[in-house]
């Protein structure tokens, strides 16, 4: 049985963590752009700029209506890529300086590295190979695999928790704090995979986020974050979450911080064919073999 979380401890945790993808970019509209423009310099389209402004309005409405107090604040983390920074700039128009307590550029949440200049026809062939090989472990020539992205996102999460624990965000506990992470499609999927301890097989079934689409992880009363507080079961199913993953999100709404969901199959059952529920047969299993059975017959 887990002790109930200390409310003073929960008060310093962000009320919600929102991970979002950038707006429509020139590369989303015309893949040939990657052959002449470095990936990190790909700009947003006019549609992407409008999407980001709309996302800012939706985010402000979500935060202001869901917060328990009018004294809510936001802190941003943003990828160094131009399309992510432009997205932040446009969505930021919906917030005042009073509401924003900080912004940090974070290289570890950048886009997956696909190599340098990308020749369109060659990349089409490479991506077909990736689909056969598997999205998570396939490493692009001169680039990264999703597994590589997982490693740097894991490092970012360690830093994020240190920022929270040491109050480097200068968060007043009387304010509802929302962290907004402006990143990229695959990086966002990997972030959620790491946070919720999803398996590689579960990752492979996830669908990409649309431009300026976001996922809201909200803090439950027990101290765990859940997607199921803000999002519906139908939404999570459309993202690629299966019934067990959705059930785990619902469990997290009331779960105590650090608790283990015993009904979550990928924590234990998925790795073993069968484990006994009790130790009733332990003695017979642990008995040493008789002398005759232990003799090696030649």
TrEMBL record:
Q: Which organism is it from?
A: Lithocarpus litseifolius
Q: Region (Disordered) spans which residues?
A: 278-298
- Which InterPro entries would you find in this protein's record? His_Pase_superF_clade-1, His_PPase_superfam, PG/BPGM_mutase_AS, PGM-Related
One GO MF term on file is: catalytic activity
Tell me what this protein is called. Answer: Phosphoglycerate mutase-like protein AT74H
Q: Which CDD domains match?
A: HP_PGM_like
- Compositional bias of kind Acidic residues: 278-289
